[in-house]
Amino acid sequence: QLQLVESGGGLVQPGGSLRLSCAASGFTLAYYAIGWFRQAPGKEREGVSCIGSSGSGASINYADSVLGRFTISRDNAKNTVYLQMNSLKPEDTGVYYCAAVYRLNRLCSTVQADYAYWGQGTQVTVSS
Fold it and tell me: Are 97 and 46 in contact (CB under 8 A)?
């Protein structure tokens, strides 16, 4: 059974950092493009970042709102993708989801409809 499990969320003060993890079971994450999405209260879910399947020149993309503050990476040995979030702002608050799609061309997108498998989400709250 294919499963994605997010972890690492929590309550953090503005300016703080968190590292989210997206662990896969039942499939090899290296062959999949991975996206991170978030949904703030009362708002639609939006794309945050994505990373293409493993290989030289794999795509990495960020939403403008997180560019320079968030970093996506993968650890194939742990079958896990990470989202390092620095300089967090209150507007980063929301439920963060990771998603996966089988795609060997090392490209990725932050379009929700492109993804086949989703995790249950982890809550991130940025507040003083």
Answer: no
